[in-house]
Amino acid sequence: MYYVAEVRDTIRVIPKRFGEDLEEVVLEICRETFEGTVSKDLGLTIVVIDLLEIGPGRLVPGDGAAFYDVKFTTLNYLPEDREFIIGDVVEVTDFGVFLRLGCVDALCHVSQVADDFYSYSSKQGALIGRESGKTISVGDRVRARIIAVTIGKSQIRVGVTMRQAGLGVESWVEEWKKSGLTEKKKATAKDSTDKEKPETKKTSTTKKASTSKKGSTTKKSTTSAKKTSTKKASTSEKKK
Fold this sequence. Notes:
Elements: E1 2-13, H1 22-34, E2 38-39, E3 43-54, E4 58-60, E5 63-77, E6 84-93, E7 96-100, E8 105-109, E9 118-121, E10 126-129, E11 135-137, E12 141-151, E13 156-161, E14 168-169, H2 170-196, H3 202-239
Parallel strand pairs: 8-13
Antiparallel strand pairs: 1-5, 2-3, 3-5, 4-5, 6-7, 6-12, 7-8, 9-10, 10-11, 12-13, 12-14
């Protein structure tokens, strides 16, 4: 990512420049010293923006120059792991594609281009997918995600992937967006259809079942009552 930082350092001004404007001299020395440098803390320093503070000068025995403690702002670029980026394809090889991210280049290995087998075509100068037939060539604008960052003494190496959904060449991303909208519409239509369907009358079935149970219970009670009355009748006849 790009960001602005405040930096403090000590600047050495040689004697032959003592008569010049101090701010202009110090700003020029800061730019010559820091612009284009790479560090693990700041990343790549692109430009020294402005000079904020100049401390009192001091002399060191045995050195005729003057030393100033200064504070200034810089614009830096420090790529971060898992960061989403947009870049332009500047080179295509049999092992991958190189992307220009502005001030640094990134490599997308052929295995990280997409969920397909990509091979290099020297005639077209492009990588071509075996199953999808999709191509990626110089000039394509792509969306990618950083998966590796190595900061050396003089350069920053960045590795990216485009295998995740929503990444890759801009035309691929547009296709992915359209397919997502289509699926969303289908899901919405299905939900509305399900809501319009009449609900099954489970309650009435339950009532019928309970009614039939009551009916059978009544029948059983009536039958048992008849049996009891019959028994009583036969018993009374015997007593007579």
